[in-house]
Amino acid sequence: MVLVHHLRLLPPDFGTGDVPMRRAHEDKRLPGFRILNWHFYFTAMLFVYGRILSHQLVNTVTSDKIFYKLVSKLIKYQMVICYFLYIAGVMWFILTLKKKMYKYQFGQFAWTHMILIVVFTQSAFTVANIFEGIFWFLLPASLIAVNDVAAYFFGFFFGKTPLIKLSPKKTWEGFIGASVVTTISAFVLANVFGHFQWLTCPRKDLSTGWLLCDPGPLFKPEYYPLPGWLSRWVLPWKEVAILPVQWHALCLSLFASSIAPFGGFFASGFKRAFKIKDFGDSIPGHGGFTDRMDCQMVMAVFAYIYHQSFVVPQDYTVEMIINEILRSLTLEEQQILYTKLGQILQERMENSLHFFSLG
Quick one: signal sequence residues (predicted)? Predict the structure, then answer.
């Protein structure tokens, strides 16, 4: 929905009353210009999502040897293909330049690239988070939604002090109230999501089977004893179980409530600049569904960086090394590697037995 909304490719003078008529008039004089925009779109899509694919992923999709080799070659030369597709698009653009329309064409060219960068940056990091485990997509996205809705309600009922001139309806009361609600929600939601194995397992292939894995230490509860007076007079239990990932969720909530809202402020400035009230009207009084996506790009990027920096173990494990090998080798090369490793291990075992027999 966000992609379709943004791909309208607004011209630089958007906001004036005669824009729709002018756009239709200009587009009629450039019959192939919209096709060029879609050419850049599909090139960007191939570049971003082609990098996510690997031989291991392709191997789970098809068992056909010819198709597998074809796709493997496309993946190997994916960057070269994307580069020349982009260069072809630039040449196409230059060859279609017309007198008295340079400003409009270059404006559309700039808008196309800006929108593709914004949209595909968001979607690429979002897809990367999903491959690390649906948990790392669902939790950050939920925190943004909770923060946005909580800020609206706290601002509506208690808001008195303006937060930022760019968005007069945003208040300090709404900002602080939403921060508290987001923090509590992060701690609770991380515990709830963390108990579903299919949410926590990383996706290593494109198969459709149900996700089953060892959840790892992050999703295994640790027990903390409660103070005696608290367990005696307030709570009926002596200890509480907390998943380690809940502490990471607090860090995500801090970002979602303090930094990510600036994505919404950016969208507010954009709407003010082009005289747009809301990006949609699917939620009466609270903007459209698209308005709920203002901060998702910022949050998706942070969630990925945080996960790679503070959650993923920095030491190489056997599983990580095997996964890296499988991504780099074809199916035939994997079989050769497996055979050679078996031969090496067998020789070492024979040498060890021979040494012990001599001893």
Answer: none
